[in-house]
Amino acid sequence: MSEKIKVAVLISGNGTNLQALIDACIAPNYPAEIVLVISNKANAKGIERAQKAGIKTRIIDHTNYRSREEFDCKLSIILSNSECKLVCLAGFMRILSESFVNTWPNSILNIHPSLLPSFPGTKTHERALEAGVKFSGCTLHFVTAELDAGPIIGQAAVPVLDNDTPKTLANRVLIEEHKLYALGLELVANKILKNKEADLHREQSTVSKSLINF
Ligand code: GRF
After folding, report:
1. pTM of the entire structure?
2. Catalytic residue selected from 112, 125, 141, 178
3. Which domain, by its residues, includes 191?
4. What is the CATH number of the domain that holds 31?
5. CB contact at 8 A, 187 and 153
6. Pocket lined around ligand 1, Cβ cut-off 6 Å
């Protein structure tokens, strides 16, 4: 089996995006594997999904921590111990502190249910309908300290129909989120593997050059 990038997934709820990633990881040549699922809510349905797939789970209830920083610090320690290289936010309803984000540079992915930079934050579908946009969609992006503003990995668009409600639009977007997340994670994980390979070749050629000079 070829090398896979270890991934942790953070959730708060239903976990259908998590399920899409679990399903994608089943393919033998998929370059990522989920090593840990963390939820800040004990009753998140996504925890059941992870357990069913035989993935290690942890509940870290944010209400047990005195501050955002304290919770994020605990999160960071658990993630480091899991040896994950990437952290996928999948319906994780917590804003992460600047210090957490800076501890995991270019390593945190988030799926957002709008075509960023339009409609960052919450109530995206309500706001998209109010604004009268004819297309909406979803964005997979790297997480930076600024909310929903990190570099975009990919986007998928869907039409907004005249009789849409926030719910019907959300359902249409969610189908695309699942495809985009699996594809985007594949792209990012493959890039990391390629860079690792290039680093290894560079190291080997440095070693052989120094042997020649010896
Ligand atoms: C998704 O729409 C995601 O974009 C948003 O929250 C929803 C989570 O859905 N952040 P699920 O938990 O993955 O089913």
Report:
1. 0.93
2. 112
3. 5-213
4. 3.40.50.170
5. yes
6. 13-17, 90-91, 111-113, 174, 177
